[in-house]
From TrEMBL, chain A:
It is found in: Endomembrane system. It comes from the Eukaryota. Belongs to the STXBP/unc-18/SEC1 family. Residues 178-205 form a coiled coil. It is a peripheral membrane protein. The keyword Protein transport applies. This is Vacuolar protein sorting-associated protein 45. The keyword Chaperone does not apply. Keywords: Coiled coil, Membrane, Protein transport, Transport. GO terms for cellular component: cytoplasmic vesicle; endomembrane system. InterPro entries: Sec-1-like_dom1, Sec-1-like_dom3a, Sec1-like, Sec1-like_dom2, Sec1-like_sf. One of its GO terms (biological process) is vesicle-mediated transport.
From TrEMBL, chain B:
GO terms for molecular function: zinc ion binding. This is (African queen) hypothetical protein. InterPro entries: Rab4/Rab5_effector, Rbsn_Rab-bd, Rbsn_Rab-bd_sf, Znf_C2H2_type, Znf_FYVE, Znf_FYVE-rel, Znf_FYVE_PHD, Znf_RING/FYVE/PHD. PROSITE patterns: ZF_FYVE (PS50178), ZINC_FINGER_C2H2_1 (PS00028), ZINC_FINGER_C2H2_2 (PS50157). Residues 13-41 form the C2H2-type domain. Residues 365-395 are annotated as: Disordered. Residues 410-437 form a coiled coil.
Amino acid sequence: MNVIQAVKMYIIKMTEESGPGMKVILMDKETTSIVSMVFSQSEILQKEVYLFERIDSHTKWDDLKHMKCIVFLRPTSENIALLSRELKSPKYGVYFIYFSNVVSKADIKTLAECDEQETVREVQEVFADYLAVDRHLFSFNIVGCLHGRSWNQHHLQRCSQGLLALLLSLKRRPIIRYEAGSEACARLAERIKELMRREAVLMDNNIPFNGDIPPPQLLVLDRRDDPVTPLLHQWTYQAMVHELLTIDNNRVSLAGVQDAPKDMKEVVLSSEQDEFYAKNLYSNFGEIGQTMKSLMDEFQKKAKSHQKVESIADMKNFVETYPLFKKMCGTVTKHVTVVGQLSSVVGSRRLLQVSELEQELACHADHTRHLQRLKAMLSDEAIAGTELVKLVCLYALRYEKHAANALPALIDSLKSRGAEHRAPALLLEYGGAHARQSDLFGLQDAAKITKRLFKGLSGVENIYTQHTPLLKDTLEDLIKGKLRENLYPAVGGELLNRRPQDIIVFIVGGTTYEEALCVHQINQSYPGVNVVLGGTTIHNSTTFLNEVKEAMHGQHRTHTRHIRNL
Amino acid sequence: MAASNEEEILEGFLCPICKADLKSASQLTNHFESLHQEEQDVLKSLKEIFGKAKKIILNNDDTDLKETFDRALKFSSQERYYAREEQTVGVSRSSTDYFKAVRSARLERYATETNKLLIRLDKLVCNMPSDPNQRKQHEQEVVPWLDGSSVKLCPNCAKAFNLTRRKHHCRLCGSILCHDCSVFLDLNVAKTIVDPSATPQPETSTAEKFGLRLCEHCYNLVQLRRQIQENRNVKTVLMSAYEQMRSLMEQATPAVEMYEKMCQSLFDGETIYNLSDVNAMRGRIGKLAEGIDLLSKHIASLPVQPGTRQAKLQNSIRQASAHYIKEELLSLRKLPTEAQIEEVRRQRYERAQKQIELERERIERERERREKEWGEEGEASGGRGQQHDDDNPILEQMNIIRDYIKEARKELRFEEVAILEQNLKDLKKEYQLQMLSNKS
């Protein structure tokens, strides 16, 4: 199950079905993102696609009757209306129409009636209706999917359709399980089941039944069950770039960076197109530095050996290695710039110090010491307000029920620092103990307590990477067949007597790159098991706090009424 | 080193079994092949080591750079797990049939009507008299005109007919309309609609006098047909240049594959292709690249208004082909030098020679044994003075094939060369066997 491959194959199918000739691809905002996640421009140019147009652009364009037009749209009513208008006065010679999801017969009829010049050759549904971020990671780029405890209807629709498309594109007919304690998860799970029922014929005709393989499982989880993971600072390359520089559809803006090369205001970080990135996105910051150094050394050696271009033979040699050389050169410069920027931020924001306390708060209980260190940091002017907010949030979650809880005082300190002091209370309301069904801090479960003890005995390998996301435990339980049925029931009460091999996890409220790493590790350490992870979006701490704010907007506080100093 | 006290350290191409110094790698392998046949596995590992060394020595040019980078990139085993699954393209569903059914049901109505109009148009323009009166008569013969006596208003604009607003007839459907509501179809245009192959004649007439008076409805139907027709046969300079360029690209891709194959064969020391062949192939790819480059530059420089999509399209085509040339055609593997080839070939030849010798010795031995057993004598007399029999059909065939090869080489059909070379080799072997069996 490789989601990038799945989307790519659909797009290749589109470019091939239209035969040879000059092509233009006509898309909407979302499909543009979907395509750009898996194809670079130069790659798609090689498929004879030379122009990229938006159906909602209002510019009056010249006709290009000698071109073939590939239309790739989400089947929304606005798109149908825009496409009808396009077909009435076609600008291109022939049209091959692909919808990214199920389209109604009525809509096809509307389009057919507009096609008076008989320019349409193909009308199809392909199911590339999600953003493929990595081979095992997808997203819908939705921040703020909930209002209070329930779904924003529009987003619920988008997610259920998107997940149906995911299943069709990967050819899986899963059992759907959801977190019992979350209303949002239950709603989504039921909605997907309903869509699957509606498209039962399509699924049954195309996805063979195979009794030898245990049925795949789609597990719908709630972000509120683990509000800790998105708050922590990460030290693996990909997660770190997202936390400190923000990755948006595989693109990182370096516009604010002072000494960035001119052609690198925005860099693309895609594991499909960038070998260095593919190999190092899960390396930690220290390893990256070393790899980078050895790469630079090699590079310099090569560069130097090529500098003395004296004879014709030298020159020829240089030209022959040139394409490779140039490619390497671009990659190296790009990553040196990015890593340089990361390390300057780490230094200036004292992130090592902050991260250490974050990890302590997330993994160990020691109230007096933690409170003391937290207070010290709150009075340290060198540490930015945003970092302090995260630390107080972590404190609030960990010591929510602690007898000596000093949250109000900490909120006062935040206020005096001019930081976003409402965030901790909102977060408690969003993902406090009342909203969680799992034992996030491992307080009740005897097995977890012993596990923690043993971990403590064996010593901590790296104080900055002690934390493992809750998802890891959940997935391991699921793989071993130990995930409890009363906590994670199946829609329609289907039998769960076999351990799944193919697992799709979807986190309502967004996932993180730390969890993507955890899924990657699980895929590697359990041969035969294949996990794909998705979320309404991929969070860093900033977007996560926005998500919380949006969900809690206009909601009455019911669990944090004792905090009065907001 | 502790060991150095007890034993003298030997260096060089040593045989691991009898410790003899054989001076060179090929001699060592030969020595091994002839004397230590029982230790085949050692031989194999020995060969592997040489193979690796050879590879490193010979391919140290551009692959070297890549290798060092790969090492720096720390090839993790990340791929190992994921590569296993064969993924097929996901589910899709076609609604094309439904779409076309709806469309044709709707268009059928238009189509019959348009066809009727086109038949009339054909009759009208085919032998139209130039004299206005005769023309009118001709027009009325083809299309019965509506009797206008009871029509008081123009059906289109609903204005009353009078002295200044005269009644007119649409020449295709015969209905009545006023002058303001009529549209004129140029006769030349009409001719091209009826017969698309006819080249439009230079404009000699003003539209109104020689144009056909039509009602708006008929005009639209005919125009729509014309547009569809035109779309089918648009062929601009851009199109033909583009098609030419694509066909060059189509030739280039297999040429590059062939080149890689030939190059590899050279590095392996095979004799199917020689260096000049591969160079010729390289030249041909270079020519193709040049052609593609020229055509794409030509496309990019076609006159176009700046800022339009046409301009963008032409630029994109140029960009794509430049990328293609750079990535596919110019990053060819470097050829080995004559000396390197000689070296590899010599090694290979020596090995083969050794093999033959061994074979011969074996046969010889066998014969001796047989001779001893049966006490036969002097069988092999005259075997040395081999008389080349020019009439031998195998030799003749070999000569023919050599000619073919020469010809195929000249025309750069290297696939053929490879096959023919193989044939030639088989024939040679056959011939040698024949000779040997003649001898014995």
